[in-house]
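Quick question, first post here. What does this chain look like in 3D?
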Amino acid sequence: MKSPSRRIIRTLAIITAIILSIAYLLPIYVMVTTSLKTPYEITQRTYLVPSMDLHFENYSKAFHLVKNAMLNSIIISGVVTVVSAFIGGLGGFYLSRFKSRFSKVLFILVGVALYLPYQAILVPLVQFMATTKLALTYAGMIISYTFLNVPLASILMGTFFMSIPREVEEAAEIDGATKRQIFFKIVSPMAMPGYASTAILVFTQVWNEFLLALTLSTPRTTTLQVKLAEVKGSFVALYNLQMAAAMIGVIVPIAFFIFLGRYFIRGILAGALKG
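> Answer (accepted):
Ran it through. Tokens below.
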């Protein structure tokens, strides 16, 4: 029989979980209900009351407005994620395996870059892009986001590489494998859960970033987050279309998370079974 104190703790835990779930899901509920209303219904400020006449055509209109920006976000976020994960894997492997004075200094510099607010380097970054004539281009945005996310990817991958036993690499060296072969054929396949976690974080950060995209984008390279601010309208606030566009924009990162999350869980289970 459970003691009264344990029942109280369990009850408090359940109540806390319910409160946090409501606080998290309530904005999403308001987004969904608002996206299915007319502008007149929204002006009534009955945000929690769903419409009796659901307007699903808002989603088709919103998709038509943001489809090009959504494609831009997919291209930019996808390329940055792949490049950052690859470079971060190389950097993380170096930081976790090579213990020298240079690697220690480099680790400190990477840590500083990781925690430095990117707004602090926004002006010099834009000046650098303008000097190299990469400003207002896809390449400029991809390179800028890569600069900002490689430190995070390196730290995450380096931390994961530290959990891989060195004996695996030592055995491969005895068999005559080079450092390059050890990294690409042995360590990297074992680190797939780490790559999946890194890719999810980097993709989500680039997908949701607004300020840098607003600064470096053009009408041709506008990303989804910048376009969402324009969908509302300048003279008439079309919050229904904006909320519908926001819900459409959530689909891609959720699908990306589900796809990589499956491999992430599979990698953890595989490691546990082998252990």
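The radius of gyration is 23 Å.
The CA atoms of residues 193 and 265 lie 7 Å apart.
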